[in-house]
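Protocol step 4 of 6: structure prediction from sequence.
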Amino acid sequence: MARIVVFDVGNVLISWDPHAPYRAHFPDEAAIAAFLEEIGFYAWNLENDRGRPWDQAVAELSAEFPHRAELIALAHREWASTVTGPIAGTVEILRRLKAAGVPVYAITNFSPEKWRESVARFDFLREGFLDVVVSGDEKLVKPDLRIYETLLKRNGLKAEDCVFIDDSLPNVEGARAAGMKAIHFQNPEALARELQALGFAAAAA
């Protein structure tokens, strides 16, 4: 039976909305989505999560799309606006598990510089985990099998003892390939039920 819980962070513990910096610059959500697709935002952002410095990333993408340079710069300059706040129900589950003595860890796709900003902003990211594997520090991103193995090896954990939680199905499948149990996060209420079913009674209010 699993006895360790491993959290993803973005859209599990904190809400991430990449549209946020652009709402003042486009008429609607569809226009923002079209812009992000035009510049290849999500693949570009993943390389930042892999550890590429943001200043370098903005310079490279602006050179490719010079007519979009100012909008691209907003992704960096106003990045804090993309993190709209904690997902309160999941944060409560984290705190209940920790209070009950359950070992809790995290694996997150995050750029090192933006991770530091987030840790400074949210106390539960500073205090909640025994260890956090940050993709940008490791130069590995989920669902690469090696990022899950980094957590296990660094902390002397057995995969079968861990349940991993992520909002991305490919990342969930990556954890399962590493030998962990895994939950595809939908909302805090469903998460509490699924954790209870795995034997974590403290997940319930």
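Step 5 (inspection) to follow. The mean pLDDT is 97.
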